[in-house]
Specification:
The chain has a single domain (6-247), classed as P-loop containing nucleotide triphosphate hydrolases (Rossmann fold, 3-Layer(aba) Sandwich). The protein has 12 helices and 12 strands. The chain has helices spanning 23-27, 61-68, 92-101, 109-112, 119-129, 136-149, 168-180, 198-215, 226-232, 250-255, 260-267, 309-313, and strands spanning 6-19, 33-46, 50-54, 76-81, 84-85, 102-105, 186-190, 218-223, 235-240, 243-249, 319-322, 325-327. Helix 8 (198-215) links the parallel strand 7 and strand 8 (218-223). Helix 5 (119-129) crosses helix 6 (136-149). The longest helix is centred in the middle third of the chain and has 18 residues, at 198-215.
């Protein structure tokens, strides 16, 4: 079992992008609005723990990942790493120690890899830019170590290749190797297998699990796919329109969901556990609303078949519905 003592903690973290109204809005004196991409996230990841962040496109998952890796700046709340407040830390030199320990795996390996660079140069780039090696032998050893950890064996067979000479699964492994080269302690993996064939996904997931089991690396696994989250994660956090609506153990969230949105995601995936956890709720209709127009009350109520008047007026708080299981739904009380 992982050590669940807080390693990373997000406290009321938010990103609001201001938007200016048109001339008509200004004439009428309407206040400027905001895109509430992330709207007050409370989440922790323990050392060596795998936490999955699940939600549809537009829920704010990628923005959360970018906040954690300091590729985006929050407009409110705190980002704590081993108890240190990293929220307002800026600049390459100030962030260098943090980025040695926190890395990101991007979704699209096609865009993440420079087509003009060899695999060796791609994996070596963070080692060079962060000045982590003193000589060529150290560089070669670290690149080989990262490639092997990502499942590219023997490393010598891949070092001189270019991205176009690799399969989709091999390209994703190179992206993973690039993150592993600096020996991070926390990895944010943003939809790392969504663009791969089903036959390759299990292999990449196993690479990520091995990182935790062998090196005690913590992982925030971002996905829209609940079955994948259940396969890999210790805990699952469900995100809807910038807000966490449910969080708990992988089994509890998958087979005993307490929020209608989680239940709808579960109903859409009959391939896990047969009918366990399935409900009579109809399939989700429509798409996630715009973060510039967050509904009043529970933000899920326009799509929720169980919504009643209170849902349309008051936003429900997250309440404990089981051991370490929280749900933000009036019906869960």
């Amino acid at each position: 079992m992982p050590n669940t003592a807080d390693f990373l903690r997000l406290e009321s973290l938010q990103v609001h992008f201001p938007i200016q109204g048109g001339l008509f809005d200004r004439v009428l004196g309407r206040p400027a609005g905001a895109v509430r991409a992330v709207d007050g996230i409370d989440l922790n990841v323990g050392r060596g723990e795998i936490v999955a962040l699940v939600g549809e496109s537009g829920s704010g998952k990628t923005t959360v990942g970018r906040l954690i890796t300091k590729l985006a700046q929050p407009t409110g709340g705190k980002l704590l790493f081993e108890g240190r407040d990293m929220t307002s830390v800026h600049g390459l030199s100030a962030l260098r120690p943090y980025r040695l320990r926190v890395q990101m795996i991007f979704q699209d390996a096609y865009q993440a890899l420079n087509p003009r660079h060899t695999v060796f140069d791609i994996v070596a780039e963070p080692l060079r830019s962060l000045r982590l090696v003193d000589n060529g032998k150290q560089l070669s050893d670290r690149v080989s170590e990262a490639l092997a950890s990502a499942g590219l064996n023997p490393p010598s067979d891949f070092c001189s290749r270019f991205p176009h000479e690799l399969s989709g699964g091999q390209r994703q492994r190179v992206v993973i190797a690039g993150a592993l080269a600096v020996r991070p302690e926390l990895i944010v993996a943003d939809e790392p297998v969504s663009m791969l064939d089903v036959s390759i996904r299990a292999q990449i997931l196993q690479v990520l699990v091995d990182l935790r089991d062998k090196h005690n690396v913590a992982l925030l696994f971002i996905t829209h796919d609940l079955p994948l989250a259940w396969l890999i994660a210790d805990r699952i956090a469900v995100l809807y329109l910038g807000k966490l609506v449910e969080i708990g153990s992988a089994d509890e969230i998958t087979f005993k969901p307490r929020h209608p949105y989680t239940a709808a995601l579960r109903n859409a995936t009959p391939q896990i556990g047969g009918n366990a956890g399935r409900t009579e709720l109809p399939a989700l209709q429509g798409e996630v609303p715009s973060a510039a127009r967050v509904p009043k009350g529970c933000r899920f109520h326009p799509r929720c078949p169980l919504a009643f008047d209170r849902c349309r007026q008051e936003e429900p708080p997250a309440i404990e519905v089981g051991p370490k299981h929280l749900a933000a739904c009036w019906l869960a009380q």
